[in-house]
Design a protein that fits this description.
The protein is of the alpha+beta class. It contains 16 helices and 18 strands. Strand 5 and strand 6 form a beta hairpin. The longest helix is centred in the C-terminal third of the chain and has 21 residues.
Length: 482
């Protein structure tokens, strides 16, 4: 009866306003209880609040009441109990590299940093499983796998600072999705503390388990709204063969898809990325990297593939030039040159951060990309004739990143208001093409009010019902996703 009541209430809430959920201020009694539990790991100084209360988005207020740093799962369970008794909300925080406001604490919440829960716990060589706490940095997972002659293939530009718990909570993607898939494809098990303080052990590293609903997969991508991840078991794979990188210059965007089809017909690339000339010129100006070839091109494609495919790659490249799909190209001759070519793509986000960009992380089926991008590009050109627009993305999986750069003279509030309005037109195009308003960065605060462009009312009602079952008091990351 209790479960059904929560579900029914959630269905009614699904039709309500999407305004930010108010959060009670932290009372003296609550602060005292938190200090008793965490000691010096309970912080309320302004610098800590400002640093741990945000992520990479800059368009939302940052106003947490406190930050706590649990050492273990037991403290997380006690923390949830305190939150329920004293009526304060919790915002989980990992590496804070998110781009959707999912880790922002805007309204007096208590931030739960997993920085101290950062231990690799176990390695199972027979099952190729690595068990770790949520605060382990993604790059550490990759390096630990390499020490055992294996690989964790989920990779992205922020792997040196993002944390595995946050990767799981947002189902992070990255540069090798075309071959290896998303984070959810590599999670073999989870331990999670729900909003009522229950500890769930999900998956347990099993390859086969057909015993009903897969709650592990439900937690992946839930952005901390259903539970706080306290342990992750990851699948590893064999170490990849040495790889080469090929960068091509393209005369027009539709040829990106021609080149993709040509390479996939004969190779199994581990990455296929694209970026615009504006993106490249910004990176070169900031980093001093060399241009891949002398003459600028409107668009570029970057393909990574195993060294064994070098001769085939050259044949495909020559075919693409002959068809007029590519006008020039360069292939890496060493690991160092491959790293430099990758930087032309991977340094884009850090480079354009200087302009406080407004980002759209959108996706459609790969076959729909050319028509979709043409429609969005026309809309953006009409809406932003005076602004710089940077395109790049993981084109091999249909994921496009649209970045509008803020002019220095334009006030940030005015800039974001203008961009928010135009985004509605972008999302209408996404809906027409059956796409997603958030391909890999999650929904958070940024996309919450636009969820209906990708999800039906029935789906959203069910999602609210699920939220009510796992978190009946609404203390876990309130106002995010839903």
């Amino acid at each position: 009866m209790v479960a059904w009541t929560a579900f029914a209430t959630a269905r009614r809430l699904s039709m309500s306003s999407t305004a930010p959920i108010p959060v009670d201020a932290l009372t003296d009694a609550a602060a005292a209880a938190l200090e008793a539990l965490f000691g010096a790991r309970f912080r309320q100084d302004a610098q800590t609040l400002a640093e741990w209360g945000r992520d990479w988005t800059r368009s939302f207020p940052v106003a947490p009441s406190a930050v706590v740093f649990p050492d273990d799962e037991g403290e997380v369970v006690e923390l949830v109990g305190l939150a329920r008794r004293h009526g304060f909300a919790l915002v989980p925080s990992g590496g804070r590299t998110g781009l959707s406001g999912g880790a922002v604490a805007p309204a007096g919440e208590v931030v739960v940093s997993f920085d101290r829960m950062n231990r690799v716990l176990d390695f199972d060589p027979a099952g190729r499983l690595l068990r770790c706490q949520p605060g382990v940095v993604t790059q550490v997972v990759q390096e630990t796998a390499a020490e055992h002659g294996l690989a964790y293939p989920v990779d992205f530009a922020s792997s040196g600072s993002s944390q595995i718990g946050g990767n799981v909570a947002t189902n992070a993607g990255g540069i090798q999705v075309i071959r290896y898939g998303m984070t959810r494809d590599w999670v073999a098990g989870l331990r999670v503390v729900t909003g009522v303080g229950e500890v769930l052990e999900l998956g347990r590293g099993l390859v086969k388990d057909n015993t009903g609903y897969d709650l592990r997969q439900l937690m992946i991508g839930s952005e901390g709204t259903l539970g706080l991840i306290t342990e992750v078991t990851l699948r590893l794979t064999h170490a990849p063969a040495p790889a080469s990188v090929l960068v091509l210059g393209l005369p027009a965007f539709p040829h990106v898809m021609d080149v993709l089809a040509a390479f996939r017909a004969r190779l199994d690339p581990s990455a296929f990325e694209f970026f615009s000339e504006l993106a490249l010129s910004k990176v070169i100006e900031r980093t001093g990297l060399a241009r891949p070839f002398a003459e600028p091109c409107p668009f570029y494609a970057l393909i990574e593939f195993e060294d064994a495919g070098t001769e085939v790659a050259l044949e495909v490249f020559e075919h693409c030039v002959g068809e007029g799909w590519a006008v020039d190209g360069v292939m890496s001759q060493s690991e160092e040159q491959a790293r430099r070519l990758w930087r032309l793509r991977e340094d884009i986000s850090e480079t354009i951060s200087r302009w406080t960009p407004y980002k759209n992380d959108i996706a459609v089926r790969v076959a729909a990309v050319p028509d979709f991008l043409a429609e969005v590009d026309a809309l953006v050109a009409d809406a932003y004739p005076d602004l710089e627009v940077v395109w790049f993305g993981h084109i091999g999986d249909g994921n496009l990143h649209l970045n509008i750069l803020k002019p220095d003279a334009l006030a940030q509030a005015d800039f974001y208001a203008r961009c928010h309005q135009v985004s509605k037109g972008v999302f209408e195009i996404v809906r027409r093409h059956g796409g997603s308003v958030s391909a890999e960065h999650g929904v958070g605060l940024l996309k919450r009010d636009h969820l209906g462009y990708s999800r039906s009312e029935a789906e959203i009602a069910l999602m609210r019902g699920i939220k009510g079952l796992f978190d009946p008091d609404g203390i876990l990351n309130p106002g995010k996703l839903l």
